[in-house]
Amino acid sequence: MSDQLTLAAETRDRVGKGASRALRRDGRVPAVIYGLNKEPTSVHLEEKALMKALMTGHFMNSVVMVNGVRTLPKDVSFHPVSDRPIHVDFLRIGEHSTVTVAVPIVFTDEDDAPGIKKGKGVLNITRHEIELVVDASDIPSEISISLTGMEIGDSIHISDVTLPKGATPAIDDRDFAIATIVPPTVPTVEDEELEAEVAEAQAAEAAAEEETPVEPNDDNNDDDKITPQKKD
């Protein structure tokens, strides 16, 4: 289960671009709390505290208590140049609300997968996280998937994954793939022949440049090395 985070906030009396810029200059980040059929509440957070929460790696799938209000982060906007957080959206939730969260996937036991260990196969990951519908009080921090016994050509689908009790996939209309063990990339004969031709052409071009005679001028100028002397 992901840890519950806590952030202190202050109510924003003024909204708008000018007010938001002023807050950011003071090391604060504007935010809004909405949901549960209540009016949105505009607040601002300390940037340092928010950055610390973001650095946990599971901010987006954690319950965050903002001034005693139970919330789930829904969006964080970042400055396109500095990457500093500039706005956060929080969704109000009840203690046992049903929420949809994106939970990261962790693959384990690669050394016990013959297709990778012996066959030199490559784990091709098509999904790095799974959207799950879960109880807000029991949000998993990650989904662990073992690769034990997997061979080249084997695939992992959502039906192969053991999910936490009470959790269901948000996508329920198909058995989507998560990862596949694919064969190692081996250069073909055509690839090797093309590389040899390119190398040969480059070597011939370099040799031709070295063999081209250049006669110096007799005017003692710096262009002696680059201007051939005309012959009578």
Brief description of this entry?
Helices cover 19% and strands 35% of the residues. It is of the alpha+beta class and 232 residues long. It has a seven-stranded mixed beta sheet with strand order 1-5-6-7-3-4-2. A four-stranded mixed beta sheet has the order 11-8-10-13, with no helix packed on it.
Written overview of the protein:
This protein is an alpha+beta fold and 232 residues long. The protein folds into 2 domains: 94 residues, Ribosomal Protein L25, Chain P (Beta Barrel), CATH 2.40.240.10; 113 residues, Ribosomal protein L25, C-terminal domain (RNA Polymerase Alpha Subunit, Chain A, domain 2). Helix content is 19%, strand content 35%. The protein contains 4 helices and 14 strands. The strands form 3 sheets. It has a 7-stranded mixed β-sheet. A hairpin with a 6-residue loop joins strand 6 and strand 7. About 3% of the residues have low confidence. Belongs to the bacterial ribosomal protein bL25 family. CTC subfamily. This is one of the proteins that binds to the 5S RNA in the ribosome where it forms part of the central protuberance. This is Large ribosomal subunit protein bL25.
Do you know the CATH architecture of the largest domain?
A: Beta Complex
Q: SSE string, helix = H, strand = E? A: EEHEEHEEEEHEEEEEEH
The major beta sheet can be summarized as:
7 strands, mixed
What proportion of the residues is helical, as a percent range? 10-25%
Overall mean pLDDT = 86
Look at the helices and sheets and give the structural class. alpha+beta
Tally of distinct domains:
2
Strand content: 25-35%
Rg, alpha carbons: 30 Å
Give the helix tally.
Answer: 4
For CATH, the homologous superfamily of the largest domain is named as Ribosomal protein L25, C-terminal domain
CATH topology of the largest domain: RNA Polymerase Alpha Subunit, Chain A, domain 2
Distance between the termini: 91 Å
Q: Could you name the ranges where pLDDT drops below 50 across 5 or more consecutive residues?
A: 222-227
Please give the number of β-strands.
14
Instruction: Report strand order across the widest sheet.
Output: 1-5-6-7-3-4-2
CATH class of the largest domain: Mainly Beta
- How does the overall form come out from the CA principal axes? flat
